[in-house]
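pls ignore typos typing on phone
PRP + seq
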Amino acid sequence: MKMENEYFLTGKIHEECGVFGVYHVSSAASLSYFGLHALQHRGQEAAGIATSDGKQITCIKGKGLITEVFNNETINKMDGIHAIGHVRYSTDGGNEIENVQPIMVRAHTGHFGAVHNGQIVNASELKEDLENQGSIFQGSSDSEIMLHLIQREAGTFVEKIMGACRKMEGAFAFIIMTKDCMYAVRDKNGLRPLSLAFLEDGYCISSETCAFDIVGAKFIRDIEPGEVVRIASDGVKSFHYTQEVQHKMCAMEYIYFARPDSSIEGINVHTSRRHAGMLLAQSDDVEADIVIGVPDSSLSAAIGYSEASGLPYEIGLIKNRYVGRTFIQPTQQQRERGVRMKLSAISSIVSGKRVVMVDDSIVRGTTSRRIVQLLKDAGATEVHVRIASAPFSSPCFYGVDTSTYEELISARMGVDELCTYINADTLKFMTIEQMREAIPTRDLCVSCFSGQYPTALFSFQKVIKKK
Ligand SMILES: O=P(O)(O)OC[C@H]1O[C@H](OP(=O)(O)OP(=O)(O)O)[C@H](O)[C@@H]1O
Ligand SMILES: NC(=O)CC[C@H](N)C(=O)O
Ligand code: SF4
Ligand SMILES: [Mg+2]
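k done
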């Protein structure tokens, strides 16, 4: 797995992947390009689109951003009325082209392909089994397992997909395309988001609803946990591969990953972040002059904190928009310079002020430590750090690259020690109960905050045992 390496290089948790699909629309490739552009924050390592004209499938993929992999010429070459697309941040398998998605196969029953967001926790076991039975994998990601399993199952294509889903544990949102059908699939725990919309005379599927707005699609509903939705010329049909479902939507989708203009399970991401900020303020009695957020993902929470506390909201930090979420810095010194490159404090705003600095999460501690210093260098007299989530103290095995305890600062330090480490005057987190109040969905996965996992962990169990 690459996650440990990559994490230490960047010092960041990364987004997950973004999946997108369109069925029966006028220009499937260009709509997919725009949809994936809206999902780019979920993965910046590689991108790909496969289109079908109803007879055959064409797939183009490559490393880099969607704008680097595609241009007018490539998009125009891709005829088709159906398409699936992907933006990748790898969690399993490196960034070789074989792991870049869509992953396509030529089966005797027809050419098909899939895009995946999530992490199959029993991937090693399934892969070993499949290899023992004669499967030869093209790449090394967990996602490819789905295609092998489909091929080995019996029945109609949708029955094959359902059979495959019953064998996989963990987190998965898949879109699968044959030359004339599309399938949207969500794992039975509902860990990763996936929604359905109308588009032109056809349909659109996306990891996040922000992509619907960009292409002009009209939201219909979320795919249910354990559901397979089949879209074909005879319309949309729903199937359930199991009745044993849970609604464990990833809390970090609301806290950090998703775009503020997306709604997940009916809850707008900006609204939930603002609510989190309000709850933070309501349980706080710190004396301060201004509230600032750390761009980008904590601005909504900072606005909420300001509203509930009555303290003025200020722009105290400016982000250089040309430094993305995933710049790679090989050493700690370079990583810290990276945060300095990314964010600058406005001294005329913070100088002489007692500042409440709201961020959405602390993972490694690099950002908070650096920013407290930036604010103090810019003349802030006090910096009170408020985090709009609980301490991130356990690894995630569901498609986010935090797979060990060592890399998580809250697994190593209590709040007081962490406050001293980041050199803040005070530090407070939310409780898990407050997080649930801010995100009033049916139920949430909060495993990285609680250490309680909603699924069996298979080979990842050894990470827990090693703790
Ligand atoms: O404790 P750390 O390991 O430093 O990680 C936590 C920080 O990283 C994320 O921001 P990021 O800069 O990735 O993205 P953003 O601009 O979208 O907020 C998150 O919002 C925190 O600010
Ligand atoms: N971040 C993700 O959702 C990654 C999907 C898949 N596990 C991969 O590594 O390609
Ligand atoms: S462990 Fe954390 S990051 Fe992973 S799915 Fe659960 S809430 Fe999301
Ligand atoms: Mg941030």
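Residues 16-17, 88-93, 99, 116-119, 141-143, 399 surround glutamine (ligand 2) (CB under 6 Å). The two ends are 19 Å apart (CA to CA). more later
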